[in-house]
Every structure is written in C-alpha cells, then in structure tokens.
C-alpha cells in the first residue's frame, strides 16, 4: 500500500460545478496535511493545509480531514477553467517528519 | 521580493558529467529540501537540511550530493553515478513545522 494515494484521473467537471478530490494515507499518526496545485510545467503551489478533523474553508476551496478513516479531501466550488491542474496531496510522516506526496489528481474543468 | 530562486531553468548533461543545480532563498527559512519529479509522478525527496552544515539523505539520494554552507543556499549536484537523471528538480524551504514552499524548478535532460 502506498503511503499517500490519489486517483490520478483525469477528473473532468463542467464549469461552475463542485470538484471533489480525494486522498487516503496509511500513517495513522500523521497530524499535518497539505494540498498543492501544480499547473503543467510549473512548480507546486500550496493552496490549503489542515491539521484538525473537520472542514477548513478558504474562498472557493474546502479541505476536509477525517483521521479515523484516514482520508483528506479538497472541494473546489464554482470550478473555473483556470482550476485545471494537477492537485497533489501531501502528508507529514509521524515517524520521520518528512513530507510524503501522492502522485496527484489531474482536474479538467470544461467551459 | 522574498522567495526561492532556482537556476538554471533548463540544464543539459553529457555522459560522465557532474552538474550542479542552484537553490537560493531569502525567506530566512531554516529547512531546505530537494525533490525529483518524473512525468505523471509525485515528488520524491532526494536530500534535506534542517540547519546550516547539516543535511540528511532522503528516499532517493544515490547519485546526488548536496552542501549547506550558508542558510540561504542549498545546491544539488547530480553526479555521473545517477544513471537516469532526466527529471524536473524542485527545491523547497520552510520554517520548521510549517508548510514548504517551492522554487520554479530546473528541468534536467541528457544530451
């Protein structure tokens, strides 16, 4: 089992819809979770981080964390074509403190 | 502007040659990291440094070397021992316990 798993996609949604991106992790002791957005050919950009169970909202983005089920998700409301990118989930290992990345989910928002 | 500067943007390596990728940050961050990204993959940690004059191997350190003589600088050398060096190399930095932020990356190819 991979330490951090994401469906590679592509996930295709129409403009204005809600995009839901999911990530599961294997380290039950992990406390810190991050979502990065990576446009094609560019470097990752931090868009959300979450440390506590529940939801965290920032503009059109909501991060959801469920430690009991070991998943973290990212919701993008009112999706725009400019949201089309690869979204990387990252989890801090409780053993090493290193940041472990999933392979990323490619999101396509169609006008 | 504060940020992380990687250079060059593109780099070509000949057989048997060592090449050095530059990473400089003016964010006063203690920790710096080097990652490798292959097409369609997540990021894999090569080396990291939490403090000047100290660094640790990541998950794929073979064929790479680093130094951390100054807080602002964390250069990565890709040696001739790295047989498959073609990839996108990303440098990141952070304050301890805080999210990592990335430079724009260097694309390394084989001539």
Elements of chain A, N to C (H/E): EEEEEEEEEEE
Morphology of chain B: globular
Oligomer: heterodimer
The ordered string of helix (H) and strand (E) elements of chain B is EEEEEEEEEEE
Beginning-to-end CA distance, first to last residue of chain A:
36 Å
Q: What's the story with the biggest beta sheet of chain A?
A: 6 strands, mixed
Number of helical regions of chain A: 0
The residue fraction in helices of chain B comes out at under 10%
The end-to-end distance of chain B, rounded to whole angstroms, is 35 Å
Reported for the largest beta sheet of chain B, the result is: 7 strands, mixed
Percentage of β-strand residues of chain B = over 45%
List unreliable stretches of 5+ residues of chain A. none
Average of pLDDT of chain A: 95
What is the tally of helical segments of chain B? Answer: 0
Number of strand elements of chain B: 11
Number of strands of chain A: 11
How would you describe this protein?
The complex is a heterodimer of chains A (111) and B (111). With 111 residues, chain A is mainly beta. Helix content of chain A is 0%, strand content 53%. Chain A is globular, with a radius of gyration of 13 Å. The model of chain A has no long low-confidence stretch (mean pLDDT 95). Chain B is mainly beta and 111 residues long. Chain B has strands at residues 4-7, 10-13, 19-25, 31-37, 43-51, 54-57, 64-66, 76-78, 87-94, 101-102, 106-110. The termini of chain B are far apart. The A-B interface holds A 4, 8, 34, 42-46, 49, 88, 98-99, 101-104 and B 33, 40-45, 48, 58, 90, 99-105.
């Amino acid at each position: 089992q991979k330490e951090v798993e994401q469906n590679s996609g592509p996930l295709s949604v129409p403009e204005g819809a809600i995009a839901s991106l999911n990530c599961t992790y294997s380290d039950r002791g992990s406390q810190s979770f991050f979502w990065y957005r990576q446009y094609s050919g560019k470097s990752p950009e931090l868009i959300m981080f979450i440390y506590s169970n529940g939801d965290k909202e920032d503009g059109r983005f909501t991060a959801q964390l469920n430690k009991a089920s070991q998943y973290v998700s990212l919701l993008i409301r009112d999706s725009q074509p400019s949201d089309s990118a690869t979204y990387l989930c990252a989890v801090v290992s409780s053993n090493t403190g290193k940041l472990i990345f999933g392979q990323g989910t490619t999101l396509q928002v169609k006008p | 502007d504060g940020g992380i500067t990687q250079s060059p943007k593109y780099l070509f390596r000949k057989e048997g040659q060592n090449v050095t990728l530059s990473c400089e940050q003016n964010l006063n961050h203690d920790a710096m990291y080097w990652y490798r990204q292959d097409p369609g993959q997540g990021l894999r940690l090569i080396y990291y440094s939490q403090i000047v004059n100290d660094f640790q191997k990541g998950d794929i350190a073979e064929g790479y070397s680093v130094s951390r003589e100054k807080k602002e600088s964390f250069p990565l050398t890709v040696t001739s021992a790295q047989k498959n060096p073609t990839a996108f190399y990303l440098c990141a930095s952070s304050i301890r316990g805080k999210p990592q932020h990335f430079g724009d990356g260097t694309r390394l190819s084989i001539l």
